[in-house]
Structure formats: C-alpha cells, structure tokens
Amino acid sequence: MTPVERAALARALALAARAQPHVSPNPAVGCIVLADGRVVGEGVTEPPPGRHGEVVALAAAGAAAHGATAVVTLEPCAHHGRTPPCTEALLAAGIARVVIAHPDPHPRAGGGAAWLDAAGVAVAGPMDADAPLRQAVARHLEGFLTVVERGRPHVTLKVAETADGAVHHPSGGRWVTGAAARRAVHRWRAAVDGVLVGSGTVLADDPRLDVRAVPTDRQPVAVVLDARLRTPPTAQVVRPGTVLVTLAAGAGHRAGPAPGPATDDDREREDRRRALTAAGVHVLSVPGVPDGHGLALPAALARLAEHGLVSLLAEPGPTLAGALLRAGLVDRLVRHVAVHLGSGAPTALLAPPGADWRLERSGGAGPDAIIQYLATDPATACTTPSPPRKESPDVHRHR
C-alpha cells in the first residue's frame, strides 16, 4: 500500500464513521477512487435502501474510474441482494486496483477480493489484523462484525460507581456522577442503535433513554428487557419504536404441574401487552431460562439483532449488569467513577476488572473518571449455555 493509498483509506474511514449512525444496521463503507495519485471520486454507504459506498464513489468518478484504484474500508461485497454486488460495479467501471482494509466475514456477502483477483484486478489487502488502520476500521465496524460473528449486537455496558464501588449515591442523591459524565453517556447514546435497561430500572427511575445533552439528528431505540411484562404503558420509555423483550407464552415456568387457567396476573400482563403495542412498542418474545422466570439473555440479544439493532449501550441496574457480564455478553465496559464519593482508594479502580479485559482508554469528565475496557473474548467468560447458533442475520447492506 502506497502512502497516497494509506491517506485515502484514512479519508474513507472518516467518511464511514460519520455515516454509520444513519445507515445502521448496514455497515457504513467508505470508498475513495484514485487516478494518478489524485482523488477523482469518493463515497460512503447511503441510508437503506440507498447505494453502497463503492457505487457512490464510482458515480462521482465517472469515466476517470477506468484504470483507477479504489480504496475501501470493507471488502467489496460479492452478494446479490437488493442491488448487484459491488464487485460487479468495480469491474464494470474498469477499476484496475482495489485496496481493502478489512475482510468481510459475512458467509454470503464475503469473497469479493477473490472474485476481483480472479477477474484480473490487482488486489491489495485485506490488511494484517494488527495494522493500526485495520484496527481502526474494525472499531468502526464493531456492531456489524459482532452480529455476523456472534449473532448478537455489540454491547457496551456503562456503570456508574463511587470510589469504593457503590452504585448508589451515599446520601441518596439521584446521580452518582456529575453533569460532564452524564453528557458523555449521551454521546454514547447518540452513537448506538439502542439503549438497553431492565424493567427494574424502568419501574425505579422512569428513564427516557433518549439523547438530550448533546446535539443529534437521530435518537436510539429504547430497549427494555422485561420478563414479566411489568413496564407500565404510562412509562416515559413507552413511545413508537421502543422495543420490549419479554417471555414467550408458557416460557420460564419452573418444572412442575402444567399451568392452570389464566390468573389475574396473566390477564393484567395481556392488557399491558395490548396497551404497549397500541402505543407503538414492539413486543418481542423469547424463551426463558430453564430453571426460573428470567429471560434467556443470549436469545434476547439474538432477537434484537434480528430486529435490526447491531449496537447497544446497556445502562441497567446491578442485577442485569452482572447477568450480562456473567453470560459473556459484554464487549466493552465503561466505568464512570465518582472519585470524590466513597471511602475507597480511587487509584485501585484503574486496575482492569480481570484477565479477560484490556484497558481501552481512561480519562476524566469533570470531577469523575471514565475508564473503558474491551473484552478480549466475551465468549470465554460465558457461564451459561447459549442456544445453537443460527445463520448470521443478514445485516450486510440490507439490500
């Protein structure tokens, strides 16, 4: 890869990063067309059902694309869907060389590099896994990659705690951390597809789960895990587009006699279901755990991926947070630490939470510390069996 191509790839990544919130659940792909070292066209994936980044860039380049180089963040797709494969568009335009940052792992859409090579196009890449630019692209594509490789959305878990690890304000205040840390949370919300909590948080705090503290032109989907369908239709989170995941009918019962006639609780749950649906809430049903009344979390997240959510910010209470961690369903842990509250030593909080995590970054927000960790492999921490893997949801470009 030449220095000019490397610079073009950085530009393509910048275009893709800005577009991602608007094209999800599809991956935002940036493409730069170079002719004689000059940029003659650039493009990025359009919102569904729009064009792919390669097609946009080729249209901008026009006749100058013949004999030129296309630099792309993700391997061009080799899949017939709503539109023809990008590999065909590149060949039709007469592209002579394609530089690829990251391979496409999708079982149906991948393989574009081999197709191009077989057609006589010079192909450079995908880049080595440890190359900084490829890692940056992988960070940008983390939602898409997690859905394809794990069958569930990418999950960032945010927790707020005092210096000694308490999750509640010692004097009973509503906020553990300050305004600057809360603005950081809203920036996370603006960047993900959905914000996830449990029904306990809805009942205790009546949150809105929207973006308010920072500018945005889109709102994330509010997601509530609610096994017993306790969310009241009057909750602030109840609005068109909200997703509520609950137990499937007859699921989650302990071993014993078959259920009897419908009880008052059953009828109340069904009344709430109808009211929530009438308010525009998507009520999704999943199996329960075999030994109790809780949701099977792997199945719940897989269902959210099928619904089109590829990235989630989880802001639950300690019970659900712990369950997600124990199940190996957390990809990034973001700890907001009020170092001025509690009696513990703040420096102790800078240590990683365990061997399965590595420090991603640390910094501050006003008087509070923000420490981010990445799971080296979430699946290795899984302590509960997952359901058999289905074929990856077709999130590749949703054509």
Describe this structure in words.
- This protein has 399 residues and is α/β, with parallel strands linked by helices.
- It folds into 2 domains: 3-140, Cytidine Deaminase, domain 2 (3-Layer(aba) Sandwich); 152-255 and 263-381, Dihydrofolate Reductase, subunit A, CATH 3.40.430.10.
- The protein has 11 helices and 14 strands.
- It has a 9-stranded mixed β-sheet, with helices on both faces.
- Strand 13 and strand 14 form a beta hairpin.
- Helix 1 (3-23) packs parallel to helix 5 (132-140).
- Mean pLDDT is 86; it is low at 252-257, 346-351 and 381-392.
The stretches of 5 or more residues where confidence is low (pLDDT under 50) are 252-257, 346-351, 381-392
The strand order across the widest sheet is 10-9-8-7-11-6-12-14-13
Summed up, the helix count is 11
- How helix-rich are the residues, as a percent range? 25-40%
CATH topology-level name of the largest domain = Dihydrofolate Reductase, subunit A
**Portion in beta strands:** 15-25%
Q: Quick recap of the structure?
A:
This protein is α/β, with parallel strands linked by helices. It has helices at 3-23, 53-61, 86-93, 112-118, 132-140, 142-150, 179-191, 199-205, 264-278, 297-306, 318-326; strands spanning 30-35, 38-44, 69-74, 97-102, 122-124, 154-162, 194-198, 221-225, 243-247, 282-286, 311-314, 332-338, 357-365, 368-375.
